[in-house]
Amino acid sequence: MGQPVTGQPRVVIVGAGPAGVRCAQTLLAAGISPIVIDESRRDGGQIYRRQPENFGRPYAKLYGTEAARAEDLHTTFERLRPKIDYRPNTLAWNVAERKLHLVHEGHASALPYDALILCPGATDRLMPVKGWQFAGTYSLGASQIALKSQAVSIGRKVVFMGSGPLLYLVANQYVQAGAQVAAVLDTSKFAQRLRALPKLLARPDVLKKGAALVSSLKKAGVSVVNGIEPLEIVGTDADGVQGVTYRDASGREQRIVCDAVALGYHLRPETQLADLARCAFRFDEPTRQWLPQIDELGRSSQAGVYLAGDGVRVLGADGAELAGRLAAYAALSDLGHTIDASTLDELKRQQQKMDRFRLGLVEAFPWPAAQAARLSDDTVVCRCEGITVGELRRVTRDEGACEANRAKAFSRVGMGRCQGRYCGHAAAEIIADAAGVPVEMVGRLRGQAPVKPLSIATVEEVE
Amino acid sequence: MNGRFIRLGETGRKTVAIRVDGKDVEALAGDTLLVAMLCSVDHVRQSEFGNEVRAGFCLMGACQDCWVWTAEGERLRACTTVVSEGLQIVTTQAEAQWANL
Fold first, then answer.
1. A203 has a pLDDT exceeding 90
2. CATH 3.50.50.60 in chain A, residues?
3. Which of A59, A350, A393, A451 lies at 20 to 30 Å from A246 by C-alpha?
4. Check whether domain A126-265 has CATH 3.50.50.60, yes or no
5. Which of A223, A229, A134 lies closest to A171, judged by CA?
6. Min Cα–Cα distance to chain A from B78, Å
7. What residues of B are in contact with residue A453 (Cβ under 8 Å)?
8. Which residue of A has its CA nearest to B32?
């Protein structure tokens, strides 16, 4: 293991979630053994994240209605493992001159590739709220990871706040696991979900599962409130979160006592490696963000670089599996393999349905862009370095920093240790509002290497 | 406050002893360092830029909010580190790293 068979092209996949695993499987079936780089200790990605080996909860308990899909993905990967070069605990931190730069247990190395398929997944998309820096505020994804991979709740009494299907899924998983859910507070309005129905009907089975999640929460006696505006996560510097205040749909201020908040507005793709590989980006109007440009198979604007899964466009796990297969076929085709046209057509047809459903979700649970203008000046926008919305507005208005990277240089918003992952999208909205320009004109934070902080003790290996 | 996180299952695992700022903390095999710490204490570090304590945020290795240090000065990301017997953690970075010029 480790060296590709002489004469075989070297195909490198980043990520071992739904997209990466299906991609590897498709390549192997065509006779190409890929190298699979994954930052995690175990395969599965986030949504099908595996619990540690000494945990005993069954698939049905961990993954609910998606148990069969999760198990199939995991067993598929177990079958692939002996036949591929799988490198867990390995961070891909840069792409330059057709080499992928890696670090594994403090040792850095460069891996040349003939084809690079990026399946890096997504993180939570966040809009700040006053007080979100207090201990006990977690991203929505974090609250799910705590339960799924560690069997813990993030607090004694948890509020789920934000928007998106994950809000209802995780709140349900908490209820079923015996945690106390104080409330589910959704910024989207019920009417928006009704309007999105025609698009959501592209996947009626998923729509039905979603509706079941909401009704099971209500049956469990959990308060589910639509059309709210978050006002503040109330807490203290020393003790963290103590409650949440919000404005309800009729304009009244409400307060809920809790010691933990799971906050999130759907997901944002991890696009840094695509950016470093110099892939072209386009503005995605429905989600108000810049995304890498791909063709219908996942080819980027750079020859030999392919993008799949939630790391390029958030389609969810099923869409990621399809995208992984499609990207593998694109790479195989570009490497001179013949691909069965009817197989491709069927995958593309399914993927179009996934995209229609994606647009339905965006309409049903919209990114709350308008909140940015109403955030108070003393709200923290950058959690890493405690920089306020007021400071970002000041550099925009007084120093003319109307572009994301310039505003970052002046204010340090986006320069902290998360590298703009959790403030970048909200910062763009705040800048756009303060400058009075459309958000696409603010641009996007450029991906910077290393895409995550490296230890100063990292040792470079020369191949 | 004692712990921040609440265990909801998988409690039959064998225990692993670690120390945090000189105090004994009982973890379970398979715990991440962040979970082990937050089942006993309510934060993992002090913000360098504000007055508030911090307890992690993303749990997936993306936000870097849960950095802690070993007694030897090695930086660990608590949410992606698995606990091991005898691990000694300090929640403040050793000042000795800055030369006193």
1. yes
2. 11-123+268-337, 126-265
3. A393
4. yes
5. A223
6. 13
7. 64
8. A150
| Both tokens assigned to A355 | 């995209």
CA distance A182 to chain B (A): 15
Fold of A371-442: Arc Repressor Mutant, subunit A (1.10.10)
Distance of CA A129 to the CA centre of its chain: 20
pLDDT 10s digits, A407-426: 999 999 999 999 999 999 99
ipTM of the complex: 0.95
User: How does pLDDT run across A428-455, given as a tens digit for each residue?
Assistant: 999 999 999 999 999 999 999 999 999 8
Determine whether the interchain pair B64/A178 forms a contact, defined as Cβ–Cβ distance below 8 Å: no
3-state SS, residue B49: coil
The total number of residues shown for chain B amounts to: 101
For residue A172, give how far its alpha carbon lies from the nearest alpha carbon of chain B (Å). 14
pLDDT, tens digit (0-9, with 9 covering 90-100), for A110-153: 999 999 999 999 999 999 999 999 999 999 999 999 999 999 99
Q: Between chains, do A418 and B13 touch, taking CB under 8 Å as contact?
A: no
CATH topology assigned to domain A11-123+268-337? FAD/NAD(P)-binding domain (3.50.50)
Structure tokens at A436: 């009075």
Helix (H) or strand (E) holding A183: strand A181-186
Closest partner CB to B59 (pick from A137, A138, A421): A138
pTM strictly above 0.90? yes
CATH 3.10.20.440 fits B15-93, yes or no: yes
Cα–Cα distance for residue pair A248/A246, rounded to 1 Å: 6
